[in-house]
Amino acid sequence: MPMIRRLRRIVRRVQRKAVDLSHPSRSPLGSAVVNCVVYRGGKRQSGSWAGLSGPEALRRVREEGDGFVWIGLHEPDEQEIAALAEPFALHPLAVEDAVQAHQRPKVAPYDDTLFAVFKSVCYVEHDELTATSEVVDTGEIMVFTGRDFVITVRHGRHGSLGPVREALEADPEQLAKGPSAVLHAIADFVVDEYLSVADAVQHDVEAVETQVFSPDAGRVDPGRIYQLKRELLELKRAVAPLARPLAVLAERRNALIDPGVQAYFRDVGDHLTTTVEQIASFDSLLDSILQAHLAQVTVAQNEDMRKITAWAAVIAVPTMVCGVYGMNFEHMPELGWRYGYLLMVSVTAVACFLVHRGFRRRGWL
Q: Would you call 122 helix, strand, or coil by DSSP?
């Protein structure tokens, strides 16, 4: 089983595509701005549109009255995001949240902008789970959605949105629906990562379960189970709070959400519900595994105590005989008999044998 799980992880590493920095949607610009692209009619604009700053691209889009701007940022500081706050009319509270990060998943409307926060998660590969292993790493993706722009702010070393850009650019019909299509694609991408991480964590849970119920269960470190529960709790904190924001996006009418896109958020919500239920089942299973392990430890301790007690009872027989005949009395039975020593040794050996046999029959030895 451990070999099979190791092979599965190797396959997952191979299946993951390497980041292609030559692709325009993944080319870093040397600052917090990862990319700034204009889309019109579902197609990426090049030529005179390429190389424009965010405010300049937004100005041209509004002058021509068609298309939208998608700006990607990675861990911007206050000055970098302040340069976009005024031209894009971003609310100060949302800007503060985007800079400081560490926010709960939410969807908040601010005037003509919709601010969404998603927790991104990543499974940390490890050869063997230990009491200090990091299993789940979290980050944040924040999305400002307007009528003619999308600004994504990413915190953390994972959760690159390059694949999302590529998938949307390969589907011009969906991308033509505007910024709300980008918001849906990001939500769908985040929830799909939740499912992948939950599947990977399942292998760790199965590994712990197998070890607990193996013949060497007494050597299992309970700290590994507690560590996995802590990592599972971190995953739950990232996943569960997103249910309400997705319900809001799927059910409430919003001028910034295209009606043709709104129904898709319901499907994302269904996938999230599946993940939440899966995580809850893992947590319940780990509780049962921990209780089973503690019960096994208790049973093993009881068996050890029974063995110690049985051997103590066996040793008590010669101890009693030696204690009696070790007394300094002048007149005691068989003290002057020639075969007294042989008789006492024989009686003691037979008594010890009978006591030992009785404990063996009862399974104490």
A: strand
